[in-house]
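can u pls check wat happens w/ manganese (II) ion
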Amino acid sequence: MDIHEYQAKELLANFGVPVPRGGVAYTAEQAMFRAEEIGGSRWVVKAQIHSGARGRAGGVKVCESEHEVRVAAGELLGKRLVTHQTGPSGKVVHRLYVEEAVTIAREIYLGLVLDRREERVCVVAAPEGGVEIEEIARDRPDTILREVIEPAVGMQPFQARELAFGLGVRSSEVNQAVKAIIGAYKAFRDLDATMVEINPLAVTVTGTVLALDAKMTFDDNALFRRPNVSELRDYAEEDPRDADASKHGLSYIALDGAIGCIVNGAGLAMATMDMIKHAGGEPANFLDIGGGASPERVAAAFQLVLSDPRVRVVLVNIFAGINRCDWVAQGIVQAAGSVSVPVPVVARLAGTNVDEGRRILRESGLHIVAAGDLADAARQAVFALEHGRGAPPNRATRGAA
Ligand code: GDP
Ligand code: MN
């Protein structure tokens, strides 16, 4: 899960990372009020979207008067910002962050990532930041510093000092830089982050070290134990299908194929995708409905899969241990009643209450191809796809009954 810059700054500040003073605004009026509250004579108005490279896309504006703040805020709010991280459709700005502007002497790059090969948290830093790490890696890779953190003991002060000296920070600024680096590390560790990026970590002309930008990504699997992080989720920033899926407790990943999959269990979902490929088809998605899925959740899964216009066949594969086949069958029937199912459905049910589940499907009047096992289900799905049975859009699969 990603969060906004202003949220990341607040979290980081709690761990001792120095940040400029600022406030959130949802209207131009509020932005002006924030500037007044912050005081001073220069401010930065920053678009809050889940993307970097906002500066180059016009999403970061330095203002010299409260009137300028108001104008800049008016221009940014509601605007669709296209950065090279958002894709061509961009992201609409709904929130702004207004900060006191500082005069920058140096911009440093500081990032913490989970290095999967090292199986460690790795600190990456470069003396000339402000541009993306990919650019630094391409243009001056020899300037990049790395420090691997030993998990048993955590980051040691000498490691932060080594980084600060390596970055060429002046001796009067070293302590501040060390505080920022250690704070970023503690926030990363204590909040179950997978990425913290401060770019730039600025040194101002008056010799103050400040995080001018901040980005944090969190481990979704740890959110349950970090309520103060998970409440920062901004659904407006996410793919509506992903957001919808997580609301219903479904794990969903969209793919390119035409066979929609509804499966319980991540391993079985993977095996189902493999079998579809083996039978000559392409899966449209990965979808794990989890254990103990209620009819409502199955219905939600159906709606989700059918919201993808590429889906021309749905394959349901349930091996019910914790789950119950009759619940899944009820879910399918419920889904068919609430949304039109314009494509053929192939279902393979096995396990708990399988006979009852099959009976529900049989007696539902729905055109559902019952498959014997997984290989058969994959074959049937590919057959249905190739022969276009039920393929014309909006033709309901309800039977004559
Ligand atoms: P990004 O483009 O999404 O990474 O947004 P940043 O927050 O990093 O801002 C982009 C650039 O704007 C920074 O690299 C700075 O050069 C500049 N910037 C941000 N805040 C200030 C500020 O307070 N004063 C000045 N002069 N420049 C700033
Ligand atoms: Mn930045």
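Residues 104-230 form a domain with the D-amino Acid Aminotransferase; Chain A, domain 1 fold (CATH 3.30.470.20).
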